[in-house]
Amino acid sequence: TPSQWEANARIAYVPSDHNYEIALWGKNLNENDVAAGQVGAGLAPFFQRFTVSPYPRRYGVEFNCRF
Question: How far apart are CA 49 and CA 14, in angstroms?
Answer without folding.
Answer: 47
